[in-house]
């Protein structure tokens, strides 16, 4: 995988943000394969498609590319809030690809995917409506919160300027493909509990430690009256999907 961006495309009279978009989309189209299936190419979608930039001709996975010079930060601005929530509820969020590039060297530094099935209502932050004097007054945007995603959701294709093997990328993707057909609330619970497991930062842990997330999860699901039972149920789901092992007596092991 060649990490250099095509600077030929940068020589134009377009604005810096337009140039960045053209150059990174060009690189992505030339280099990126489908992480969800064995297809070695992705198709650029027409420019008037608002939320999808690339699509897989084999499995129809939709991918939205977001590029930035320098680091991405803890949250990324996405489009309008309400349409995004509707897409989440209908399980039709696109997959996201986040590309960080060095604008002096014109080189890709990091490229990471967040599969759409990891995007839930809890990973989206509603922004304040644009103020009365703005051109689009009242418009409500949203942010994608990286901190609300388990580490498993971040699937690197290029990390610190090193390409990861396509086989490894596809394996990581496939490990969580079972989330895709689940209803949005079920996806939410499974990924929130997985995030809590990962945040313990250890392989072997106790059920009692998981209960320490009770209040945090209660805040995310205020209408649920049985959060502890839900935690136990989700640990079973994660076990059934091969992500955890039950050792016994309230002891679990992450695989
Ligand atoms: Zn595909």
Can you describe this structure?
- Helix 4 (184-199) packs across helix 7.
- It is built from 7 helices and 13 strands.
- The protein is 30% helix and 24% strand.
- It has 2 domains: 7-175, PvuII Endonuclease, Chain A; 185-254, Arc Repressor Mutant, subunit A, CATH 1.10.10.10.
- The protein is of the alpha+beta class and 255 residues long.
- The structure holds zinc ion.
What brief labels describe this structure?
alpha+beta, Arc Repressor Mutant, subunit A, three-stranded antiparallel β-sheet, globular, binds zinc ion
Quaternary? single chain
Supply Rg.
20 Å
By DSSP (H or I, 4+ residues per run), the number of helices equals: 7
CATH class of the largest domain: Alpha Beta
SSE topology:
Blueprint: H1 16-31, E1 43-44, E2 54-55, E3 62-69, E4 75-80, H2 81-89, E5 95-102, E6 107-114, E7 124-126, E8 141-145, E9 155-159, E10 162-163, H3 166-174, H4 184-199, E11 204-206, H5 207-211, H6 214-220, H7 227-240, E12 244-248, E13 251-254
Parallel strand pairs: 3-5
Antiparallel strand pairs: 1-2, 2-3, 4-8, 5-6, 6-9, 7-8, 9-10, 11-13, 12-13
Helix pairs in contact: 4-7
The structure holds zinc ion.
């Amino acid at each position: 995988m060649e990490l250099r961006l095509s600077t030929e495309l940068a020589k134009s009279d377009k604005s810096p943000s337009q140039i960045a978009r053209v150059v990174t989309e060009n690189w992505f189209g030339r280099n990126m394969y489908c992480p969800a299936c064995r297809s070695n190419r992705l198709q650029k979608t027409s420019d008037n498609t608002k939320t999808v930039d690339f699509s897989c001709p084999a499995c129809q996975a939709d991918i939205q590319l977001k590029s930035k010079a320098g680091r991405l930060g803890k949250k990324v601005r996405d489009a309008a809030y309400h349409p995004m929530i509707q897409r989440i509820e209908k399980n039709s969020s696109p997959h996201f690809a986040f590309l960080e590039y060095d604008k002096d060297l014109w080189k890709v530094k990091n490229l990471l995917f967040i599969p759409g099935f990891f995007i839930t209502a809890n990973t989206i932050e509603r922004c304040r409506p644009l103020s009365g004097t703005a051109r689009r007054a009242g418009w409500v945007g949203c942010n994608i919160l990286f901190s609300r995603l388990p580490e498993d959701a971040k699937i690197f294709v290029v990390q610190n300027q090193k390409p990861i093997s396509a086989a490894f990328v596809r394996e990581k993707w496939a490990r969580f493909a079972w989330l895709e057909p689940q209803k949005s609330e079920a996806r939410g619970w499974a990924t929130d509990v997985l995030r809590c497991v990962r945040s313990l930062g250890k392989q072997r842990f106790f059920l009692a430690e998981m209960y320490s997330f009770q209040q945090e999860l209660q805040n995310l699901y205020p209408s649920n009256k049985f959060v502890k039972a839900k935690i136990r149920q989700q640990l079973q789901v994660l076990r059934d999907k091969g992500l955890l092992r039950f050792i016994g007596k309230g002891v679990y092991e992450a695989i």
